[in-house]
Write a structure and sequence with these properties.
Shape: elongated
Order of helices and strands: HHHHHHHHHHH
Largest sheet: none
Strand content: under 5%
Number of helices: 11
Structural class: mainly alpha
Helix content: over 70%
Distance between the termini: 97 Å
């Protein structure tokens, strides 16, 4: 019994040691107050902001010039027949920087009319998002085709507005994507033509020499690279992409 009492006394001493240490050292206390929390409106604004940040990759890809640029660069790589050269990371990074170059006027307008007033607390988050949407809509309206917008009105049976500025955003974005894909495929078709001609010439020469077992692509690829370098292909392709946004 004496041993048991000593053991209980030791446990009580160990449990009371942190309390005594806290009282002797005057540690700061922590209190939780549920009555005076953050304003619900501010919380919803933060939630909305994080939602926009989550959708930022989709906005960058679908509502900007990135779609057209990355598709054209992918066509360029396939036309050369170099498989994974340049690698995907390089093409996507190059497409991002070209997109920044193309979208710079729109980005400056968004910063001056939406982000800067919002950070200065001159407008709220809703007004900032409306300004961002307005600037992105201005870019998409400039490059969308009316036939692609008409497709969605034909499917839904809704009456089309008299002016393109009256098109809702959920109609405008998919129509803009279709327009960008069509333009990118048109540029890709033009890029393929000289390389297809070169493949046909090499294949004809190999067949005339009786080398039917030698793959024409294996022989034509060095000539494609040589032709691409001699005409400064990357400059031509980049210039064609950038000029396509000025039409």
């Amino acid at each position: 019994m004496k041993i048991t009492g000593k053991i209980l006394l030791a446990f009580v001493s160990i449990a009371a040691a942190p309390v005594a240490f806290a009282q002797s050292t005057n540690l700061p206390g922590v209190s939780v107050n549920f009555g005076q929390g953050t304003n619900l409106v501010d919380t919803l604004e933060v939630l909305l902001l994080f939602t926009v940040l989550t959708l930022a990759p989709a906005i960058i890809i679908l509502c900007t010039s990135f779609t057209r640029i990355v598709v054209v660069l992918s066509f360029m790589r396939q036309a050369l027949g170099t498989q994974n050269m340049p690698p995907n990371q390089l093409l996507i990074g190059f497409a991002l920087f070209l997109s920044v170059f193309v979208m710079m006027p729109t980005g400056q307008s968004i910063y001056q009319n939406s982000l800067q007033p919002y950070t200065a607390k001159q407008i709220n988050a809703t007004q900032a998002l409306e300004g961002l949407e307005k600037d992105l809509r201005g870019f998409m309206i400039k490059h969308v085709r009316k036939a692609d917008i008409g497709l969605f009105y034909d499917v839904t049976g809704a009456a089309a507005p008299a002016d393109i500025t009256g098109v809702p955003t959920h109609y405008l974005i998919p129509a803009f994507i279709i327009s960008e894909l069509k333009t990118a495929f048109q540029i890709g078709f033009l890029l393929y033509i000289p390389f297809i001609v070169l493949d046909m010439v090499v294949a004809s020469v190999l067949m005339a020499m009786g080398m039917m077992m030698l793959p024409p692509m294996l022989v034509s690829m060095p000539f494609k690279l040589l032709l691409f370098v001699l005409v400064d292909g990357w400059q031509l392709v980049t210039g064609a992409i950038l000029r396509s946004f000025n039409t």
